[in-house]
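Researcher: Please translate sequence to structure tokens.
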Amino acid sequence: MSEIKVLVIEDEPTLARLLSYNLTLEGYETTVVDHGSQGLHTALHHHFDLIILDIMLPGMNGFEVLTKLRQAGGKTPVIILTARNAEEEVVQGLKCGADDYITKPFGVAELLARASAVLRRTSNDGLPLGLEPSRDEKVITLGELSIYPERYEVTLHNELIPLRPKEFEVLLHLVQRPGTVITRDDLMNAVWGFDYIGGQRTVDVHVSSLRKKLEMNQQSVQIDSIRGVGYKLMVQKNK
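Model: Translation complete:
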């Protein structure tokens, strides 16, 4: 198996060294770039399996790098590094096409876990995801929608729906009470925790993205908005 390649775009020397050292120790082949424009050029002209992207960069900030990368057709998964309690950065990063985010300061264990999770999700394109689950594996099925909590995977009409971790957790919380209105506060507490400082806009952004992925070209699964309250998941039964 070829070595997994990670591009780190980070201009703070100490943090860049920390990221490079621990990723390399974990077995990843790591490239570090300390400038936004150079990072974009490197990402577009070389193959990487994962990009870890800081928001505050010289030359071109992380949002610009990510936007231009996606506009150019780059599909490499991206984890953005954001400041603590900077909800606007998280929201904007997700809208630009980030796959996940980590807030500073963060622990090495969290970084490696998130990198592994993103790589595991995004490397499934060539795997036979349609295989039957093992006997012991939990599967939640609603109509043509199947949720695999242990894998953080979702299939709709037997096709994999790529979700970010928080999108998956929002969906998991909704499917446990189909047809029931779940308040934004309930989703915030269940997915982000009671001590999360950010506002409800984070919930709305994740639900909006989740809705687009589930409802694209089909109407069997819908997430309805209840103005001023929250959301409910509706599954249309086959006629």
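Researcher: Any highlights?
Model: Residues 5-122 form a domain with the Rossmann fold fold (CATH 3.40.50.2300).
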